[in-house]
Amino acid sequence: MRSWSLTTTCAAETWALGEALGALVTEPLIIGLRGDLGTGKTCLTQGLARGLGVPEEEPVTSPSYTLMNQYTGRLELHHFDLYRLNGPEDLVDLGFDDYLQGAGVVVVEWAERAPVLETEGLSIRLAHAGEEERRIDFAAEGRVAEALLARLAEVLTTERGGG
Questions:
Q1: Which domain covers residue 65, as residue numbers?
Q2: CB 131: neighbour CB atoms within 10 A?
Q3: Number of domains in the chain
Q4: Strands 68-72, 76-81: pairing kind
Q5: Digit-coded pLDDT (tens) for 86-132
């Protein structure tokens, strides 16, 4: 397992982090997002969608009531929000396991509500670190996620003048 952390100072930086991540994704991937309300999970996903090539004219919104939104980019993006999940039967009704085995990128907000997510992929925890700042902790499990996280850390460290 590989881990890495950074702090963003505003929503625009969190969005840009997501965009940088999305630009680096080249293979199917599961991304579990964890964090309290208002920590930037949807903001990060919006940037990720743009990095994956989802057109700017297509709004990327949190699927709080529908549980899943789908977007087309270089890879399909399946965006789940499990905040209002009633129980495991909701996941079965959505065919959640099929998406996890699919060829696209699966982003799951409130990933702690889906115990089946104990799998290879990228886990991202967002936390308030000040009024606008967010501490973002990454943990990667598996070859694809570990290589992606190493590349993201390299790219962002260089951009921020640390490399």
A1: 14-130+152-159
A2: 6
A3: 1
A4: antiparallel
A5: 888 888 888 888 898 888 999 999 998 887 666 789 999 999 999 99
